[in-house]
């Protein structure tokens, strides 16, 4: 089992290139199933979740070629419309193939994803929305069986009872090949939604309103090929901004955009961090003074993202003062608290909120990563902790952070992988 070792106390200085967003690239890849023509993506991150989606699409018969950040996908000859359990259980985003498959082939069998470390994550909205587009759905032996009567989905008008990123994406893709105009109300507004809409439009779909809460999709009988660049990863951007905030000095985050992390930037500024736009990226700096305690609540975009909550909690652990962090998106996303406490953080959790009383120093310890964002929050804590932090179960990190060790080391951090077994 590999581990990461972080020796704390070294300030960061340099340039960190931000990769394409994995949470944008995953639905963009699933969208290739909507067309028999090639879809070309650039700026695709090299992370394990992308490899999982590649394996799943290949299982369906999609031909995929990859050269660095460039990926070509050709779904001209889809042989199977079944997404098997073994592939789906590795990554919940696999459920994103459901909409495209049933829209183009009139049928799909997708395994139910099963449990998840960050809470109960049902997919009822994906299913209700597809049913609204006329899909007939049933659950058989752990699989969702979806059929489009007469082979084609119909238009619909679906109101999400609350915001879901994945369900908005699944329905946007499905509606692009449905008959007539679909309206999605109370849709997610994340930049990944706008990015998917851009690709679908380039493929010939007619979509208006993506990025707002009401999306109009005029379905087409077929879609073509397209070329598209994956949007920068706002969560990676925010993660490195917090790395600078926690340990101090100055880093340029290149190939990204401050506009993608507006809410995060606002909160970090209140804490005393400087963020400004520079050509091609964002400059983040923090001087000798520790950050101030600031309250924060996670919300759907444009609010503060749940995917940066764990990292923010590491930062607040060494703040001057107190802060309250409230998680409103997932019901079990405080798994990192126990590990941060082992490093000396003073955190009390009450239901969906955590009170963090800033301490002067964290101390290195052996800790366990529980999910992707929790893992990176421990790396951030390790950057500022006294002594050595050893993080176990680092495969979580590989799912979503391309070359984390390389990027931090290039800016002066003492971070390395311990390879064993
Ligand atoms: C996406 O997950 C991201 N994943 C998550 O990133 C992110 O945390 C989440 O959006 C929220 O921003 C990808 O984009 C691949 P949701 P998704 O549907 O789409 C509930 C990371 O670390 N819900 O917006 O699965 C759900 O349980 C990951 O990169 C239902 O109840 O999230 C949650 O409480 C983790 N029924 C809330 O809605 C449904 O049918 C929001 O989930 C769907 C969702």
UniProtKB/TrEMBL annotation:
It comes from the Bacteria. The modification 2-(S-cysteinyl)pyruvic acid O-phosphothioketal is found at residue 116. Pathway: Cell wall biogenesis; peptidoglycan biosynthesis. Its main location: cytoplasm. It is found in: Cytoplasm. The active site is at 116 (proton donor). Its EC number is 2.5.1.7. It holds the Pfam family EPSP_synthase. GO terms for cellular component: cytoplasm. Belongs to the EPSP synthase family. MurA subfamily. This is UDP-N-acetylglucosamine 1-carboxyvinyltransferase. The gene is murA.
